[in-house]
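SEQUENCE-TO-STRUCTURE ENTRY
===========================

Backbone structure tokens: a row of integers, each naming the local backbone shape at its residue.

Task: work out the structure tokens from the sequence, keeping to the layout shown below.
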Amino acid sequence: MKKLIVFVFILLFLSSTKSNSCTIVMVSDSSAALAGSNEDATFPLTLIWYVPASKSDYARVCLGFKMIVNSVQGGMNEKGLFVDGNRLSSQGWKATAGKANLLGSLLDRILASCANIEDVKEFFNTYNIGALDVARIPVMDKTGASMIVEWYNGEVAFVETSKKYQVSTNFVESKYRGKEKPCWRYNKAMEMLDRQNALTITDMSNVLDATHIEGSSSTTLYSFVCDLKNGDIYVYNYHNYSVSIKINLEEELMKGKHEHYLQQLFDDRSADYLRFIETGPVRMLNTGYRRNMAVTLLFFHIIKTNYPIAFGTDISVNTLSQFGKSLIGKGKLEDAITIMERNVKEFPEVARSHFELGSLYLDTNNKEKAIVELRKTMDIDPDHKQAGKILKTLL
């Protein structure tokens, strides 16, 4: 059962939190090795966490999600290795005979076990990496060497370059050798880097700014730039590149294992962020519902657990109420009953949860259950006029 839950959540995560529009930029010269990323998605419960070294693993900083599975979106380790990922449509990946199957979070395992580009090559040559079916993996080490790992023509491909910079977006570059690239973000970043002489954090943030996105289906929730030679990471909130937080990995690791919700590190609250506080939980329930009811309820549990910690705002009776009403409006009454029954279970002392469930029972010709819920409504709120009026009629 546990494996099933993890699998379901991975499906949900891949479809809803990592969009097809992230931009990764890697640049280097004799004095600098910088790697930056725009993380584009819809679900801003992003964490940044620090993992000290162990006997077998390198210390690292990770950005992403830690709910049911450890879902690293990007990060850097103590050896100065950067890793991130771009979503793709299915590439027809198939396992290779003789290779071991990788267990655990892909990006986390790379950060934990690889010190440089050559280690990453050995890693992908050793393991079957099913994630290559729907993702490509940009990596860079502190020497300035970079590459992008992707699945092409039935095998793992390592895309390298003789230029001082490399850009990764959401297409398989091996398919477009010598051809025009099918992504405006890639083309814009390459155009800007072609004109760059210096390589600074500001230059990187300018490229990320020029390639960020804003929209209802996906927006740049955060960006970060890693200075791989110095072990610094610069984090930007909601595509605001005028303000950054500088973090030194070595200093943070001295504090031991710890984590922060990314939004809590910034004083600024963007309009998108405020909108999510108000409407995000219901939107995410809708995302889960596109899978099935079990995923919907699973996602409610995840939100209820993590949302107050991240935003300082408790999940209220309003969340399931709004979602249940939307199902009623679509004529999905059985599913609406499931949601309203869950609302009563979550908020048994709230008159509204009982009244709405009682009203729904009445609308679906379940008079006995309706009376029970309406009486509970009156027990909690004796002055509830609507419940009292309906009960009087029914009795």
